[in-house]
User: Which sequence fits this backbone?
C-alpha cells in the first residue's frame, strides 16, 4: 500500500504536540481528551483529531487519549525512537550555544563534533567537545557515522560546506546560514532564518499597534 502523504502543516505541529504531551506525562496525567488538549494548546479539538487521524487516530471516542502512549507514538513518527549523531559547523556564539544545549540528548540527538576554520577557535572546549579544524571534517564524518550537520556559518561559505557534507554522507542539514541551500534529492534541509522570524514578529507587533490605535 502506498504511504499516505502527510502535509508539512501537520508535520510542523507534531513537535508541539510532543512537547505538551511530555509535560503532561511528567505531571502524571494519564488520559486527556481532544477538548482538554485543545484548551491547553490553543488549537481546535477538530484540528487535533484531524491531525491524529493522519496516523490512525490513537484514541477512542468518549475515552480520550492515553498520554504516555500518544507521546511515545508521536515520538516514533518524529523518528525520536532512534539516535542521530550530529556535528556543528561554525564555533561562533550560535554554534557554541547550540553545542551547550542539553535537551538535544534527551531527544536522541547526540553532539559529536564542532568545526571551525578560525585557528583561534580550534581547541576550544564546548561541553567536553573540542573545536576541530575544517580539514578534519570529512574524516570525522565518515569515522563517526554522522548523519546530521548544523550550519552556523556566514552564507558566503555555506553552499560550499554543504556540498562537502553531502559528498561525505550527511543526510540532513539544519541550516542557520542566511541562504536557502539547494541539495540533491533525498537530502533533508531545514532552513532557519532568525531574521525572518524577527521580521514576522515586527509585522505582528506593528499590526497590533495599529489595531489598538483604531479602537
Assistant:
Amino acid at each position: 500500500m502506498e504511504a499516505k502523504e502527510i502535509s508539512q502543516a501537520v508535520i510542523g505541529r507534531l513537535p508541539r504536540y510532543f512537547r505538551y504531551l511530555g509535560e503532561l506525562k511528567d505531571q502524571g496525567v494519564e488520559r486527556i481528551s481532544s477538548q482538554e488538549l485543545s484548551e491547553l494548546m490553543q488549537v481546535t479539538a477538530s484540528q487535533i483529531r484531524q491531525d491524529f487521524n493522519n496516523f490512525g487516530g490513537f484514541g477512542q471516542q468518549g475515552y480520550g487519549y492515553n498520554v504516555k502512549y500518544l507521546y511515545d507514538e508521536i515520538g516514533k513518527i518524529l523518528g525520536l525512537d532512534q539516535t542521530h549523531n550530529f556535528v556543528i559547523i561554525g564555533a561562533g556564539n550560535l554554534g557554541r550555544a547550540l553545542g551547550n544545549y542539553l535537551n538535544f540528548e534527551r531527544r536522541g540527538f547526540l553532539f559529536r563534533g564542532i568545526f571551525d576554520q578560525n585557528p583561534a577557535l580550534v581547541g576550544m572546549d564546548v561541553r567536553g567537545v573540542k573545536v576541530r579544524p575544517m580539514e578534519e571534517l570529512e574524516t570525522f564524518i565518515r569515522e563517526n557515522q554522522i548523519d546530521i550537520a548544523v550550519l552556523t556559518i556566514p552564507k558566503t561559505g555555506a553552499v560550499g560546506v554543504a556540498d562537502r557534507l553531502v559528498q561525505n554522507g550527511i543526510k540532513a542539514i539544519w541550516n542557520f546560514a542566511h541562504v536557502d541551500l539547494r541539495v540533491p534529492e533525498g537530502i533533508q534541509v531545514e532552513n532557519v532564518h532568525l531574521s525572518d522570524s524577527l521580521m514576522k514578529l515586527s509585522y505582528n507587533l506593528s499590526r497590533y499597534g495599529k489595531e489598538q490605535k483604531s479602537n
